[in-house]
Each structure stands twice: as structure tokens, then as C-alpha cells.
Amino acid sequence: MIFTYYAALSSFLGTSVEFVEALTVILAVGAVRGWRSALIGAGAALAILALLVFAIGAPLVHMIHIGWVQLIVGLFMLLFGIRWLRKAILRYAGLKALHDEQESYEKELQRQQNAGQIRRGIDSFGFITSFSITFLEGMEAIFIVITLGTSGANLMNASVLGASLGAVVVLVVGIIFRKPLIRVPENTMKFIVGLMLTSFGAFWVGEAFSVEWPQADLSIVYMAITLLLFSWMIIRHCKSRMNRSASISQRKSEAI
Length: 256
Description:
Blueprint: H1 2-33, H2 35-63, H3 66-93, H4 101-113, H5 124-149, H6 156-177, H7 186-208, H8 219-255
Helix pairs in contact: 1-2, 1-4, 1-5, 1-6, 1-7, 2-5, 3-7, 3-8, 5-6, 7-8
């Protein structure tokens, strides 16, 4: 049961993060090139992504035996989760800028305005922009859905449900308010998804090597908490080192 909720929540958060970034571009396209072009482009990409999930993800559940796929899926989730977790740690440690949707929106707005004359009907530049950003961000969401869905029995439905809810919620809220979702804690959500995918991946890699996890499925929660504490320690250490370096540089400049 914990796998089902874990897969649904991971898919929901991961998909929401990806589509918040896609929505920012779609809103800029709609504001400049026209909403028809923006929505048709995004809709076409979503339709293709949905087909990919059902054409690739669903058959994999029945074709691939859970015994040996655990290692492959676990490694992919580990790599993907560690990538998100690393970026989140760098952002919260001050070594990488936090992602700012308002800044991204203004840049894309300027790019759309400089793209030339707007065509009647479906503007090709607006359509391609909306289609490409939705498809690219959606592909990462699909990776999360398929890896989570194929990692255990009856998890594909939970993963697809979570991803669908994430996409629908983000797009509906964005279209209603027609503003970038700057209040969405995107950086925090990426941090959480990184923790969840990394712990889930580690669990399945261990299962592939017949590791006897204490308290079975609950080990995933314990691993996520351990990763959170370890990440917090790294962030505090990095901030401390940066503050000491800044203090030393300041004293040197004052001495000169």
C-alpha cells in the first residue's frame, strides 16, 4: 500500500514541477502570440505524451519480469533522483541561483515579442514554442511515471493518476489566472521529489540484490528522512564555508 501512495505522490509532485516550468512559457506565448496557438501547441504535446505512456509504459508492466527489472529501474531512479537532489542542495546552499518563474516569464515574453509578425489563425512560432516546451518537460514527467509504474505490481495506475492530476491542476490554475505560478514552492518541490526518487531507487536496487530491509516497505520512508538530514547537513556546511570565505575576503580587502 505504501508503494501505491509513494508512487502517486512522487508522480504528482514531479509532474507538477515540470509543468509549472512549461506553463510559464505557454503563458508568455498566449500573452503575445495568441492563446489559440499556445493552447493547441500544448494540447498536441500532451496528447502525444499520453499516447507514449499507454503505448510504452502499460505494456512494460506485463512484458518485463519484476525480478530483474528492479535493478535497472532502481538505478535509473537513483540517477534521476540524485540529479534533482544535487541541484536542490546547490540552490539552498547558495551555490546555484534559485529558479525564478517570474524572471523566466519575462525573458520568454521578450523572446516572443522579438519573434516577428504574428500570423492570423495559428501562429507557427507560438505553436512550436508551446509544443516543444510541453513535450520536453513532459518527457521528464513520463520518465518518472514509467520508472515508478514498472517498479512494482499495480503501480502504473497510481503513477499515471498522480501525473495526470499534477498536469491538470497546474494547467487549469495557470489558464484561469493567466499568471506564472510564482507562489508555488517549486524549488522545495524539486527537493522533495529528489529525496523520494533517490530513496525509492535505493530501495529497488537493494531488492534486486536480495537485501532484507528492516520493516520492509517503511524502509523507504526512513531512507528519505535520512537523506533529508544528510542534505541539511551538507547545506549548513556549504553555507558555513561560504560565510568564512566571505569573511576572510572582507578582512583582506579592509587590510589593503
